Amino acid sequence: MNWLEHILGNEWKIAPAGGVTGEAYYAKSGDRQLFLKRNSSPFLAVLSAEGIVPKLVWTKRMENGDVITAQEWLLGRGLTFSEMSDPRVAKLLSKIHHSSEMLNMLMRMGKKPLQPETKMEELRKKAAGFQDRLPALGKVLKRLEQFLPEMPDQLLAVCHFDIDHNNWMISQHDELYLVDWDSALIADPAADIGMLLRKYVPLPGWEDWMKAYGKPLDEALLKRIYWYEAARIIMSLRDDNMERKSKELAQLLMEVKQLSC
């Protein structure tokens, strides 16, 4: 951490923030607190400007080319399961999906849109090693093929792709943030919406949640939700989670049967 002491000075107390990369730190000096990270994505500046993540305080480039970013270190907590139904969550996710600034930045960074046809090829390859052990998998793939012509390939937005409740943070000042953007992609917003609704919001509450989001819960959106949710389940298949994923696929098939196909 000598490089951080060189940047901040001896008056700062620095501690690792954990994580896999070991590139994040907390720093404190009196009442001042910072969250520091090496080589954060340039996307962080836009997220900060949009109020999606805690404020970016400064950015410094090191002689070796590394970029150090400092954000406000806020006291707060992750949301609970029940809080994910809050209209504030829907409104913030809608703001993210409708942000042209965030979309333009990811495109300038070279991110390519996730197209359904390309994803379908990935799903076929992934499923090939599991179909003989998962009877429901063949039926799910057939549904995905049926829905494919209705999947828009130009409905583009910045999607977080890891809408876990622990990635939603509420500060001590009651400010809501969505953090941990390492999995962000340009894709159909239904991918984020579907994961959140199916994991956290009881089915009778979906329409009200979508009203807060600002879009109607029509059948076209439902088909897109189930398409991306099926894709997510298939891509997460492993030898050690077969039983659980089999139940998830069976449940998804039951829900899809309620739609006219």
Q: SSE string, helix = H, strand = E? A: HEEEHEEEHHHHEEEEHHHH
CATH topology of the largest domain: Aminoglycoside 3'-phosphotransferase, Chain: A, domain 2
Helix- and strand-based class? alpha+beta
The N- to C-terminal Cα distance equals: 58 Å
- Output the radius of gyration: 21 Å
Q: At CATH's second level, what is the architecture of the largest domain?
A: Alpha-Beta Complex
Number of DSSP-assigned strands: 10
Count of distinct structural domains: 2
Poorly predicted regions are none
CATH superfamily of the largest domain, called what?
Aminoglycoside phosphotransferase (APH), C-terminal lobe
Proportion of strand residues: 15-25%
Count of helical regions: 10
Shape: elongated
Largest sheet: 5 strands, antiparallel
Overall pLDDT score: 91
What percent of the residues sit in helical stretches (DSSP H or I)? 40-55%
CATH class of the largest domain: Alpha Beta
Strand order of the largest sheet: 1-2-3-5-4
